[in-house]
Specification:
The protein contains 10 helices and 10 strands. The chain is an alpha/beta fold. The termini are far apart. It has helices at 7-10, 14-31, 82-87, 105-122, 140-146, 184-187, 191-196, 220-234, 252-257, 263-273, and strands at residues 33-39, 47-52, 59-65, 91-95, 128-138, 150-151, 163-169, 203-204, 209-215, 239-245. The strands form 2 sheets. The chain has an 8-stranded mixed sheet with strand order 1-2-4-3-5-7-9-10, with helices on both faces.
C-alpha cells in the first residue's frame, strides 16, 4: 500500500506540476513589482519576497507560507501565488524558513511568527496597512501559518500578531500520523513535538476567521485532518468554513490557489480583501 503522505507517488504528473510552479514564478517576477530577499531576521534563511500592486497605499498585507513537509522547497518556486493577492489590491509576502532537520519545529514556528511581526512593523514603509493582515499556507505551510493565530498547549499567550483571517490549504494538523510515515526517518518528530505542535490540540482567539480547503482527490489523511481541525476551531468559537476543491490533488491545488478565476484563487482574493 502506498504511503498516503508520499505525494510524489500519488500524483502522476508530479514533476510537471513542480516545473509549472517554477515557470509561473519566473513569469510573476518578470511582471509584478517586487522586493526580493528582504531579511526579517538574522539567519540567512530568514528572508521574504514582497510583490506589490502598482499603487500600494494602505494596502492589505497577505503572508503565504509554502509547504514541503517542513524539509523541502523554497519560496522562489511560489512567487506566482502573489498574483491573486496583488490583483485584490494586496501586498504579497512569500516567506522562507529554515528546513528540518537542520532545526526543530519550534524554530520554524518562531520564524514564521517573526516574519509576520516584521511585516507589521515595516508595513508603512512599503505602502501596507498593518491592521489589514491575513495569511495562507499549503501543506506544512498551512501548519506553520496556523500558529500565527494559535497558541500551542505549552504556550501561555496567543501570538501578538493582528491577523484577521487565515486560508489553510491541504494542511497538516495532527503530527502523530507523520511519525508512522516515510517522513519520520528524516524529520525525527519527537513525542514532545507531536504533543506541542499539533494544531488539533491548540487554542485560537475567539472570533478568528478560518477557511480550510482540501483537494477532492487528495489522500484520506488530508480530508480527515481538516475535518478534525474544523471541529476543534468551531468548538472554540471561531468562524470556520470548509471547502472542497473539485478535481484537485495535493500539487494541483496550489496552482489553483495562484490562479485568478478558480474557486481557490477567489477564496484567496476574498481572504486578502477581508
Amino acid at each position: 500500500m502506498t504511503d498516503p503522505f508520499l505525494i510524489r507517488a500519488l500524483v502522476p504528473n508530479y514533476e510537471a506540476i513542480r516545473e509549472a510552479y517554477r515557470q509561473r514564478s519566473d513569469a510573476t517576477r518578470a511582471t509584478l513589482h517586487h522586493h526580493l530577499d528582504l531579511q526579517y531576521g538574522p539567519h540567512p534563511d530568514e528572508r521574504l519576497d514582497l510583490f506589490l500592486p502598482d499603487r500600494a497605499e494602505g494596502a492589505p498585507v497577505h503572508i503565504f507560507v509554502h509547504g514541503g513537509y517542513w524539509r523541502a522547497n523554497v519560496k522562489e518556486d511560489y512567487a506566482y501565488v502573489a498574483e491573486p493577492i496583488v490583483a485584490a489590491g494586496g501586498i504579497a509576502a512569500i516567506v522562507e524558513y529554515t528546513l528540518m532537520p537542520k532545526v526543530r519545529l519550534a524554530t520554524l514556528v518562531d520564524q514564521v511568527r517573526r516574519a509576520a511581526r516584521w511585516l507589521v512593523a515595516q508595513a508603512g514603509a512599503f505602502g501596507g496597512d498593518a491592521g489589514r493582515l491575513s495569511a495562507s499556507g499549503h501543506s506544512a505551510g498551512g501548519h506553520l501559518a496556523f500558529y500565527l493565530a494559535a497558541a500551542a498547549p505549552h504556550e501561555a499567550e496567543l501570538p501578538d500578531i493582528p491577523l484577521q483571517s487565515l486560508l489553510l490549504v491541504s494542511g497538516l494538523y495532527d503530527l502523530d500520523p507523520i511519525t508512522r510515515s516515510f517522513l519520520q526517518p528524516e524529520l525525527g518528530f519527537t513525542s514532545e513535538e507531536v504533543a506541542e505542535w499539533s494544531p488539533v490540540a491548540a487554542r485560537v482567539a475567539n472570533g478568528m476567521r478560518f477557511e480550510l480547503a482540501v483537494g477532492e482527490v487528495e489522500s484520506a489523511p488530508f480530508h480527515e485532518q481538516a475535518e478534525r481541525l474544523a471541529a476543534r476551531l468551531s468548538g472554540q468559537g471561531s468562524t470556520t468554513e470548509q471547502r472542497m476543491i473539485d478535481g484537485a490533488d495535493h500539487m494541483s491545488i496550489v496552482v489553483d490557489l495562484g490562479t485568478r478565476g478558480t474557486k481557490l484563487g477567489g477564496m484567496l482574493e476574498k481572504c486578502v480583501g477581508g
